[in-house]
TrEMBL record:
Pathway as given in its UniProt record: Cell wall biogenesis; peptidoglycan biosynthesis
Protease listed as a keyword: no
EC number: 1.3.1.98
Residue ranges constituting the FAD-binding PCMH-type domain according to the UniProt record: 17-185
Chemical reaction(s) catalysed: UDP-N-acetyl-alpha-D-muramate + NADP(+) = UDP-N-acetyl-3-O-(1-carboxyvinyl)-alpha-D-glucosamine + NADPH + H(+)
This protein's record includes keyword Thylakoid: no
Name recorded for this polypeptide: UDP-N-acetylenolpyruvoylglucosamine reductase
Amino acid sequence: MKTLTSTSLKPYHTFGLELNAKEIVEANTVEDFLLVWAQKPSEPKLIVGEGSNLLFCEDFDGTVILNRLKGITVRETKTEWFLHVAGGENWHDLVKWTVENHMPGLENLALIPGLVGSAPIQNIGAYGVELKAHCDYVDVLMLDGGHTDRLSALECEFGYRDSVFKRQLKDKAIVTGVGFRLPKQWQPVLGYGALSQLQDKENLTAKDVYDMVCEIRREKLPDPKKIGNAGSFFKNPVVTKCLADRLLAAHPNMPCFYVNDAEVKLAAGWLIDQCGLKGHRVGGAAVHNQQALVLTNADKATSKDVVTLARQVVDTVHRQFGVKLEHEVRFMGRNAETDLEAACQR
Ligand code: FAD
Ligand code: EPU
């Protein structure tokens, strides 16, 4: 385990806010994680991958543990590739490596920031594919007894931006590794937006899909290395069919996706955009001009700027459409996870 000399959180989360932790350490082995929990039983602790889904609302009065578990092993059968990937590997590097090595399946998930160990937490998804499509199992370190366990994909209870790790196992388990199952018989997923252009391409490869996903993402989403952000700030809201029908009557071009007979998923980015909020600023925080679902650190934003902006977006969308947006980004308070409501009271 390595303790860093600096306590600045700025390099360790993609919003790039000027905040500090009490201590920042790197965990290179499973034993390192156990050591922190043994040495600091009553201190607040937070596991961080690349901090690309985190908003620190204030300084963190505890230890941040950076996941640095490394290693990939591959096994194959006649019909499938089986990968075991340590939680500290970079997600996009893994996707790129599988595509280059002719192990297709993860290409739609290219360029999602973050680590492999964080991917199951919210069941990352993009362009019609979610992690759950190829997740075989998730290895965890259980913090109550210090033992390791292997959860099947079913036991992870994956949903839209959701899993058991955000509910029953929240603060109880550390993801140490993920198992992937990639069928050799490739089924491209081209249903989402511009990807359908590839439908008629001869000799289509996973690399073609990967390249197009990277191109679309580079056009739409701000690069956190240049403009601080945490991707979609809010989840796409799932509303009753009754409300969706009412909104559709007034806005026939409103994008929506039928979840089941009774529920419809709306595009939060479209709702925010329709409220005229693109480019809207509070201090140094802004609604992104290309993608209204992304809130950015446009110019030395403080956490208060981002929180106030998020509040204004939620209130405006609620007033205009009667839809309550929930944040996808995880809010961290001084000692523990918090949320927009609580962060606004501060
Ligand atoms: P962090 O932000 O470091 O952590 C996220 C949460 O998981 C925290 O609560 C943390 O404590 C917990 N955690 C992290 N690692 C572990 C572990 N090993 N065990 C237990 N808990 C852990 N997401 C999508 O789903 N689809 C997208 O298309 C997408 N696009 C994005 C684009 C941009 C530009 C950005 C900045 C973000 C985007 N995201 C997207 C969100 C983000 O990339 C994912 O949520 C990613 O999985 C977060 O990984 P991370 O390593 O940065 O996690
Ligand atoms: N839209 C607008 N204006 C905007 C933004 C979007 O009108 O400013 C419209 C688009 O034209 C489109 C619809 O809203 O009709 C959906 O937009 P887009 O395809 O860009 O996707 P999204 O719903 O905004 C979701 C995920 C992204 C993921 C993309 C691609 C959520 C919360 N977000 O965004 O994930 O990359 O689809 O699959 O589900 C993330 O979670 O951080 C993330 C970036």
